[in-house]
Amino acid sequence: MLNIVLFGPPGAGKGTQSQNLIQQYNLVHLSTGDILRGEISNGTPLGLEAKKLMDQGLLVPDEVVIGMISNKLDSNKDAKGFIFDGFPRTVAQAEALDQVLASKNDAISAMIALEVNEVELEKRLLIRGKDSGRPDDQNPEIIRKRVQEYTSKTAPVANFYKAQSKFYSVAGIGTIDGIFTAIKAVVEKL
Ligand code: AP5
Fold first, then answer.
1. 115, part of any domain
2. Is 110 domain-assigned?
3. Domain count of the chain?
4. Exposure string for 63-79, b = 16+ CB within 10 A, e = fewer
5. What segment(s) does the record annotate as region NMP (predicted)?
6. CATH code at 104?
7. Reported ipTM
8. Distance from the CA of 9 to the center of ligand 1, in angstroms?
9. Which pLDDT tens digit goes with each residue over 96-154?
């Protein structure tokens, strides 16, 4: 199985490059952000609770996203592998993911981190916010809060995979195709 954690701050290009990866390697894309937005648009109780946090740029509780990912792994038993996009976002989530995969005799193959500076992130998200209608893209203060959450709670997840010698860094500024070429170079070596 090829199981890749695509990592990086809000706006780094995780969703964009996930699309390239799933096409190239025939993998299943698991984006906790997309799953949560699906819950919101379906008006589920989980979605209503998550929306309050997401609109403020805050993370939703670990147990909520861990449960969602476990369910998706169970319902995609024939997958050749997964791209985890926006998950794990805390060390507790990374530990839980390792446990769930180990229970299926599986493991993460690599974390690939997209490196993009904060000025570029804010620019990208404000541009997208004009068209996407994503409430968390509309306002520079909320974007900064998302980046703060990333710095304080999510960035340490890189150390978790560094300790397992599974961490790879890729420059996330440049053309989408050029960045994908750099990602593929990592994947081909695995
Ligand atoms: P989530 O949906 O995961 O959002 P995010 O991490 O903030 O990431 P984005 O989707 O904004 O950015 P991205 O890195 O995917 O970049 P993209 O390809 O879209 O999470 C949203 C919220 O849900 C969180 O704040 C939290 O509340 C909650 N949540 C989700 N997962 C959670 C978890 N595990 N635990 C707890 N809470 C969780 O690109 C961004 C823009 O840039 C696009 O317009 C794109 O076209 C453009 N772009 C991409 N690449 C380039 C490039 N090379 N050059 C120029 N522009 C580019």
1. yes
2. yes
3. 1
4. ebbbebbeebbeeeeeb
5. 31-60
6. 3.40.50.300
7. 0.97
8. 7
9. 999 999 999 999 999 999 999 999 999 999 999 888 788 999 899 999 999 999 999 99
